[in-house]
Amino acid sequence: MPAGVAWTEPxxxxxxxxxxxxxxxxxxxxxxxxxxGVAYVPGPPFxxxxxxxxTLRLSFSHLGPPDLERAAERLGGVVAAALTPAQA
Length: 88
Hints:
Aspartate Aminotransferase, domain 1, 4 strands
């Protein structure tokens, strides 16, 4: 993942939380992630008030390690592209 991205270390269960750099919005980033073949649940509905815009929930229970690695690479590419200023 690009610098500034953090995630929780699962201690059981079937999901992990990712936090994007604060200038990114998980809801706005979702269409690009879906186009890249990665689905996630944006975090704002799981927070109080306006918090959580830069968070997302990732499920890992359905895929095996090779697929999870590919998904992480794809999502990392989407995040990196969102962090890169538009070329004029």
